[in-house]
Amino acid sequence: MNLDWCPGIREACTYWRDAPMLQQTFDALDRTLAQDNDACIDCAKSIVEVFCRMIVDELDSRTHPVKPKAAAPDFGEWVAAAVRVLKLGENQNGKFLKLVSQHHKLTTALGDLRNESGPISHGRDGFLAKLSVHHRRSAILSADALVTFLHQAYLDAQRDPVNSREPWERFEALNELIDRNIGLTLVADDDGNPEFRIILPGYDYLSLSIPVSRLLYQLDRDAYIEALNAARSVPASSTD
Fold it and tell me: Domain segments of the chain: what residues?
């Protein structure tokens, strides 16, 4: 078996390529699939759980959180929280709600299979026989169905840029709205320090005081080095 059996997981993990723990688990899934190792069941379950936690962290309400409060929430609790934060249960379409219910059943089955047979999660009888390829395929396909379902719902959800760990380019529509209507200028404050002014519609503005060195260091390291080299070429007397 290989990752071709779980294209939804592969797509979601590519989308979240900056999430180290998810990528580590994804790499482990890739290896165990290639080895026909029953540990792929543990990896598949872990990917679903990690993915659900990421969705909850991204979309959960600060005023009415649905994140599980238990010290160690079980697998089903995380999937249920992801479904709730995605507001999938608010759809009044009966067939859609039935689909959500079936995914809950997949979650339970995957968790049970992992608990009973996954070799990584708990110590096992050393002479316990390996599962068949059919068991492994069932686990992978179930996990892939869950991740695909939740990932596509997440992509359609309204994300909050205040708390999101998504990179800037993922907010293309919001970025375009700001860039089209908001201006930027540089002035000197009363102490002669540079001050950026974010020009709002109606000529109001927001002030952003930041040293040039910090701005360059945060946004463009190559420009920082180029500016540093240019500054070094200035005679010391010229900066007094």
Answer: 3-122+129-156, 171-239
